Amino acid sequence: MGKLSMKLCNFPLSKFREIFIINKMNIKPCNRLRNKALRVFFLMGAGLALFGQNIPKSLSMEKLIMQSYRPLVVAHRGFRSIAPENTLLAAQKGFDAGADMWELDVAASSDGVLVVLHDNTLSRTTDAKTRFPSRSPWTVYDFTLAELKSLDAGSWYAQTDPFMQIAVGRVKTSELASFKDIKIPTLREALELTKRLGWRVNIEIKDATGFACDAWIVERTAELIKELDMVPSVLISSFNHDYLKRMKKAIPEIAVAALIDKPLSDPIQILRDIGAVALNPNEKYLDGATVKALRSAGFGVLPWTVNDASRMKTLLNWGATGLITDFPDKALELVNKSF
Question: What pTM, to 2 d.p., does this model score?
Fold first, then answer.
C-alpha cells in the first residue's frame, strides 16, 4: 500500500470535500498525487475504493472484481511459494503479504467432510504413502477425516523445495521445522480463518465426478458459506461448469467464475449461460483480444497461474482484472507501481 493510500485510508469521507476544495484553491499541488487522490476520492464516493485489504465488507465480490481502481492479487493456494500449499499457514502468509484474497481447493473425505486439497491423491503433499502403504493410489476421497488429519501436510515442502525458495535463502531452515506435521485443513477451518482476518477467498470446487461426494459437494459448500455468513466474501470457481450452475441455484447471489484450461470458442456465451462474473483462464493460452472481448462484455478476467513479472505486466496491460499467482508479493509490487 502506498503512503498516499495509507493516509487517505485514515480520513473520514466527510473530510475529503474540504481537502479537495483547499487543494483547488492552492492550485499548485503535485499533479500526479492530486490526480491519484482524486481517483481515490471519487471511487470512495461510489463505494469502490481499494486500499490493499481494507475493502468495504459490504462490497459484493462482483463489484470487487470489476472495480476500476486496480487489479486484484490472489494468492494461489495461499502464498504457496514460501509455505506448504492449501494450509492455514500459507493462507496467513498470503494475507500478511497484502494479497486481496486467497484461492483454495475443496475436496471431501470419505465420511462427508469438506477438506482443502488440490490433488485427487495425497501422495504429493502428505506422507500418506508412508502412513498408509497399502492404500495406493491414496485418493483423498477414500480417506476419513480422522485419517486425513493424521497426515503430515507440511514436511514435503522441505523435501522438494517446489519453488526453490529454500535454495535462494528466502525460506530459512528454522522455519522449515515449523512446517512439520502441519495438517490438512477442513473448509470450515479455512473459511473461519478468512473471516477472522476480514479477508476474501476464491473457492475452487474440485471436479469429483465418479466419487460419492459429486452428489453433494456443491450444496454442502454452499451451506457452509451461508452458515458462516460469507457470501459477499467468496468467489466460487470450478472446471466443472455444472457445479457453478448448481451453486447459483443454491445461492443465486453468489459470484462464480468459470475455470478453463484451453481456450473456448465462445467464452462470453458460456459465462452468460452460467451466470458467471468472470473467466479464470490458463494464462499460457490467453491473448489480448480475448481479454478485451470479455471486458467489453462486462466480465472479469482472472488468469492463473502467473508467476513471471513480465507476463504479469502484459496481462495487466491487456486489461486483466486480477492475477492468480504463487508470488503475491511480486504481483503486488507491480500492481502498486502501475496503478
Answer: 0.86
